[in-house]
Design brief:
The structure is a single chain. The protein is of the alpha+beta class. The protein has one domain: Double Stranded RNA Binding Domain. It is 32% helix and 28% strand. It is built from 2 helices and 4 strands, in the order αββββα. It has a 4-stranded antiparallel beta sheet. The longest helix is centred in the N-terminal third of the chain and has 17 residues. The chain is flat.
Length: 98
């Protein structure tokens, strides 16, 4: 399995902040490789559908998990992304989430 890139974490952070502020939309972890896909889709009343798709071999296997979380999980996800980016900053980035 390929590692998750820092720019992918930046996108997840930005989108989670938007979902948290607006209670609508989608936050995703857009991995370059097909082994992992994560999507958080905001619904009604602070509910979020979390879908995780993973595979050890994208040609022969597929595993998908969908479960519901609520918006109160987003601050922890946001904090985890920020902590990762503070420890491992994106080189050459001028964005505030580098």
């Amino acid at each position: 399995m390929s590692p998750i890139g820092l720019t992918e974490i930046v996108q997840l952070l930005n989108e989670c902040e938007t979902v948290n502020a607006t209670s609508s939309g989608l936050a995703s972890l857009p991995c370059m490789e097909p082994e992992l896909d994560v999507k958080l889709v905001a619904g009604d009343h602070g509910h979020i559908a979390a879908t995780i798709e993973t595979t050890p071999d994208d040609l022969t296997h597929a595993h998908s998990f969908t479960f519901e979380i609520d918006q109160s999980y987003l601050p922890g996800i946001i904090a985890g992304c920020r902590e990762t980016l503070e420890k491992y900053p994106v080189r050459g980035a001028s964005d505030e989430h580098r």
